[in-house]
Amino acid sequence: MQESRDVVVVGGGPAGLAAAEAVASQGVGVLVLERQSEIGYPIHTSGGSWMKEMQELGVPAQLLHPIPQVFFLSPRQEVALRYDPPVACVLDVRGLYQHLAARAIAAGAELRLRHAVDQVLLEEGRVSGVTVRDARGRRLTIRSRVTIDASGMARHIAVRAGLAGAFRRYGYGAEYDLYAPHYPQEELYLLMGSKVAPSGYAWVFPRGQGRVRVGVGVIHP
User: Fold this and answer.
1) What is the extent of the structural domain holding 200?
2) Residue 149: inside a domain, yes or no?
């Protein structure tokens, strides 16, 4: 099967969804291809961000958990910073992704889930579209005037088109989201030191309603 679009966006994360909304709002046909079965899952970020930037981007207040107190802990020292009003926040990551998807759809973008890009179409040295596998394993060719690579660290389009190599240095982390009703929801902790996280840090991020994200991230060798 073959289709054509003005713009194809590979990746249904924040960058891809924001790009799709911007394109669609100009009256240009845009298709977003996302390999996962739903927007915002699995979650690949702890959701730490900044109030000012999120407000400027029009993110609803119910998707932000303001953080007035930030603690930096090392093996020998502790630094506490308090902000009034809060400058940091922890996002409802899944809620934010789906909010961005709704905005893109409302602007006129089309989203397709469980569509994994497997090849890039090249014509005279330029990207002219992609081939994808859908949820039933069928191959579809989609030609486009513009292809946007929003596939994150995978860089599906850039790598396959020979425009860039794969990342050799990147962060690797693990996180647990738990219910901790006695944890103070206004306090965020960042833990430093090679014994805790070599070449990285650990964190405790409250996200509201008694829930806390506890994780650790390091630079992958």
Assistant:
1) 67-89+169-220
2) yes
Model pLDDT, residue 221: 65
DSSP state of 165: P
Cα–Cα separations (whole angstroms), residue 153 to 12, 27, 43, 156, 163: 13, 29, 14, 8, 14
Q: Which helix (H) or strand (E) holds 56?
A: helix 51-56
pLDDT, mean of residues 146-168:
88
Does residue 160 have a pLDDT over 70? yes
The enclosing domain of 214 has a CATH number of 3.30.9.10
The number of domains in the chain is 2
pTM of the complete model: 0.90
User: Of 160, 180, 196, which one is at a domain's C-terminal end?
Assistant: 160
Structure tokens at 129: 């579209």
Which residue from 116, 140, 141 is spatially nearest to 129, judged by alpha carbons? 141
pLDDT tens digits, residue range 12-59?
Answer: 999 999 999 999 999 999 999 999 999 998 888 899 999 999 999 999
